[in-house]
Amino acid sequence: MQTSLKRMNPATLPNAGSMGYSQIVITNPGTLAFVSGQVAQTADGSAVPDGLEAQTRQVVANLTEALKSVGASTYDIVQMRIYVTDLDEDAMAIAMPPIMAFLDGAAPSLTGIGVAALAGPDLKIEIEMIVQIST
Predict the structure, then answer these.
(1) Number of domains in the chain
(2) pTM, two decimal places
């Protein structure tokens, strides 16, 4: 499903388009799915992988499954929030390439947030989404 989201990067704001996301996303009235923060846990309860790169890959896999379950694609994502422990330039260099590959040019509104901890001691990244869906 592809929705009619309008993505904007006004010249009066920093150029988010060059980073792969949008400063503003406008959506028409409709049904929104609020996807809880996804962490590097699997449906079968496997151990959380070590390292930010492996955890980001699992989080992206979980996000992909969440989109499938509501009949949506990355182009239907209105907003993403990314929470990372120990957020710095190195962490961004590790986490953002798989996230940008997942988005595949969709460019939702995106916020990155550094946090002291997540819901489990081994968790390094969590991503939540707001997705426009058809009913």
Answers:
(1) 1
(2) 0.87
